[in-house]
Amino acid sequence: MSLDEELIALRREIHRRPELAGEERETAGLVAEQLRAAGLEVTTGVGGHGVVAVLDGSADGPTIAYRADMDAVDAMKNVLPFPRTGRVYDEGFASTVPGVAHLCGHDLHTAIGVGIARRLAASSDQVRGRLVFVFQPAEEPLQGARAMLDTGVVQRLAPREFYALHTSPFPTGTIAVSPGHGLPGLDQLRILLPADADAATVEALGTVRFPQNVTEYHTGFHALLDPEAGASPQESASVAAWPEPGPAVGVLLRIWPQEHLPDVRAQVERLAATAGGHVASQGAPFPALVNSPELSTAAGDYLSTTMGPESVLRARASWPYNCEDFALFTHEAPGALLYLGVANTDAGIDGAPHSPEFAADERAIGHGVRAMTGLLTHRLTTGRRGPHYGVRHGE
Fold first, then answer.
1. pLDDT at 385
2. Counting C-beta atoms within 10 Å of the first and last residue's C-beta, which end of the chain has fewer, N or C?
3. Which of 266, 282, 298 delimits the end of a domain?
4. Which of 34-38, 255-259, 382-386 is predicted most confidently?
């Protein structure tokens, strides 16, 4: 069996038994088993069920980290309200856990991370420096990255760069880079209102209407590639509101760029005051994910050379609807999240994460492994030397 076939089998095993955020015990066990068998130094239980693995190459060099997330979603809560067609894409390996499913592609992320580690471990004589593989729990509620970082395990390894992939509705065989763009920050408020107030008025502040079907989702995502998207500053404010006991209204803000968050929050507070209410509580704002322009551009240039320019897409705007706690890793060192195409229109595979019938072309697993194996090796050998260059295990 080829490595690609083994990784597809691993993905399907994880897909059959999805685990919600904070419950990724079995998935983490599968990951740790594969990484230990490949000869990596493995630490488990990092920030919950997180796994950190280290691969030291044959010569001194920098330290670079690669992150993959492992949790599944609550299919009753975290799925887009798109019409269902009833089509089954995972016949033979569908989820056996009621109400839980891998509808965001984290099963692919995990299999790809394992594949990169295994492929590089098999040729560690060509690796100059150290690779750190971070398998993260609880990405969906934006908790896992913080929990892992709070242990200090990742910081002690001192990566100078972080990389990750995320499934996307671009065609299989393509990868998109997003220099200087990324995903919005997040803020949550609870507003107390008079009993006769119209809580729905809060929603009027939103400047972004979420796609109502997969076609709109695809159109919106592909619009990120439009050269005109980069011709003017990109701004978005997505506001969601829902009634709560009190009477009160919960408000979720997704803002890009991050610097606009105080202004949007102030507008919500003014709107609440107009309706006779006030902000009763608020969470700590979650930062936006901003991809390093330098690392994203360098990744796009390298992949264009090795894969062909037609295989590399360049996003010129930020997708306004989702958040990513990979943002916290990029606060430790520069990083880049790349979008891995998993759609196959001929096969009816939409590749739109969080859609109710999300599916991915499994050929994308091998494509992601080969692309990122080459990129990480390239960055170890030719990338800019950072302050941790030459640091090896135990030093």
1. 46
2. C
3. 282
4. 34-38
Residue appearing with tokens 């159109």: 219
Tell whether pTM > 0.70. Answer: yes
Residues 238 and 260 in one domain: yes
Angle, in degrees to the nearest 10, between helices 293-307 and 363-382: 120
Within the chain, how many helices (H) and strands (E) appear?
10, 16
CB under 8 Å to 100, separation ≥6 — which residues? 18, 19, 20, 72, 73, 74, 75
Q: Strand 128-136 vs strand 236-244: parallel, antiparallel, or unpaired?
A: unpaired
Same domain, 17 and 71: yes
Given a contact cutoff of 8 angstroms between Cβ atoms, the answer to whether 142 and 323 are in contact is: yes
Tokens 């608020």: give the residue: 282
pLDDT at 395 over 50: no
The pLDDT mean for the chain works out to 91
Task: Kindly report, residue by residue over 110-127, the tens digit of the pLDDT.
Answer: 999 999 999 999 999 889
Query: φ and ψ at 79, to 5 degrees?
Result: -120, 140
Does one domain contain both 242 and 368? no
| Structure-token pair, residue 120 | 């590089």
Tokens of 153: 């395990």
Residue 394 lies in a domain: no
The span from the CA of 7 to the CA of 28, in Å, is: 15
Q: Is the pLDDT score of 344 beyond 90?
A: yes
User: DSSP class of residue 276?
Assistant: T
Dihedrals φ, ψ of 392, to 5°?
A: -120, 170
Task: Confirm if 261 and 253 have CB atoms less than 8 A apart.
Answer: yes
Q: Does 190 have pLDDT greater than 50?
A: yes
Model confidence at 204, in pLDDT bands (50, 70, 90)? low
Those residues whose C-beta lies under 8 Å from the C-beta of residue 244, and which sit 6 or more positions away, are 190, 250
Which residues constitute the domain of residue 238? 185-213+229-282
Q: What is the pLDDT of residue 389?
A: 38
Beta bridge partners of 344: 349
CATH number at residue 155: 3.40.630.10
